[in-house]
Amino acid sequence: MSGKQPDGAPFGLALLLAGLAGWVDAAGLAGSGGVFISFMSGNTTDLAVSLIQRKWPEALLIGSIVALFVAGVAAGEAVESRSGRQGPSIVLGLEALFLAAGAAVFWHGGAGRFELCPLVFAMGLQNATMHRAAGISIGLTYVTGTLVQIGRGLGGGGSGASVKYCSLWLSLLTGAALATLAMSLSVPGALSAAAAAAAIIAAVTAVRRPR
Question: Where are the beta strands (DSSP E) in the chain?
Fold first, then answer.
């Protein structure tokens, strides 16, 4: 049985995870020279440009990252669906491990783009932790759909949902901004903080799982 309840997880958890995604994306972007960790729409556009311009190494890298992100989502969904009520916390625990692996690479001097693979897989995993919260569908590592929902709510009179979606967008924005400040001190430290945050969230959700 899936660990997700009919109306989803607490909205506060969604905000925390959106902030974590913004943090990791900003930290990874700084270390990759322009390849996104969780923003696959941007990577898809870059992939098309690289293919047309025959930049084969670039295309291989970006294509691999997109595939790895999808693999992370698939792995997370498989684990979550088979783990009962503890599914989301188990997936978050795995995410913490992969974030820690990515941080370890940076601590040991690695900063190449392929070294970002653990971070990409971790962001894919995160998307399996919840699909809905507070009565709305949730995208935890990307905001294009969130912005579309904000516009739809404003245009259709659904101001309540728009406020929730705007909160998600602001959470991701804030996470990226805070990560940028943290990276001015240490990129490996910023990634280590993300791994620690994911581990703490996993532990809290395990203890406070729905009954």
Answer: 132-133, 136-137
The tens digit of pLDDT for each residue in 10-54 reads 899 999 999 999 999 888 777 666 778 888 888 899 999 999 999
According to DSSP H, which parts of the chain are helical?
11-32, 40-52, 56-81, 87-107, 117-126, 144-156, 159-183, 187-207
CATH 3.30.1370 describes domain 11-206: no
Residue type, 35: V
The structure's pTM equals 0.88
Type of residue found at 86: Q
Q: Map residue 110 onto helix, strand or coil.
A: coil
Q: How do beta strands 136-137 and 132-133 pair?
A: antiparallel
Phi, psi of 53 (to 5 degrees): -85, 5
What does the alpha-carbon distance between residue 13 and residue 18 come to, in Å, rounded to a whole number? Answer: 9
Q: Which of 69, 78, 73, 76 is nearest to 117 (CA)?
A: 69
For 88-108, write each residue's pLDDT tens digit. 999 999 999 999 998 888 777
